[in-house]
Design goal:
Elements: E1 2-3, H1 6-11, H2 13-20, E2 25-29, E3 32-35, E4 38-46, E5 49-54, E6 61-64, H3 68-84
Antiparallel strand pairs: 1-4, 2-3, 3-4, 4-5, 5-6
Length: 90
């Protein structure tokens, strides 16, 4: 599964805009977000669709992002992770 290219990221414009509003996240490259200097979220594409990989701890969790409901679940997962790990460094 390859990292999402520019055309795939363009299809995720609405989701990317929401992620960019989270001050704890830094977008170092288009569609690649870091938190506290560590890779936190990025996107993949393959024939079955688009996916977000989120790292809530030491492992990566894969989430589909192919429709509005998928994207809402990803935002909820990101917000839960950020809230659970919030602290003075955010």
């Amino acid at each position: 599964m390859k990292h999402a290219g520019p055309a795939a990221l363009a299809r995720l414009d609405d989701l990317l805009a929401l992620l960019r509003r989270r001050p704890a996240l830094v977008e170092r490259r288009p569609g690649v977000f870091y938190r506290r200097g560590r890779a936190f979220l990025h996107f993949h594409e393959d024939p079955s669709g688009l996916f977000a990989d989120i790292r809530p701890g030491d492992r990566w969790d894969r989430w589909p992002v192919n429709d509005a409901a998928d994207r809402a679940r990803v935002i909820e997962a990101v917000d839960r992770t950020l809230a659970a790990a919030s602290g003075p460094a955010d």
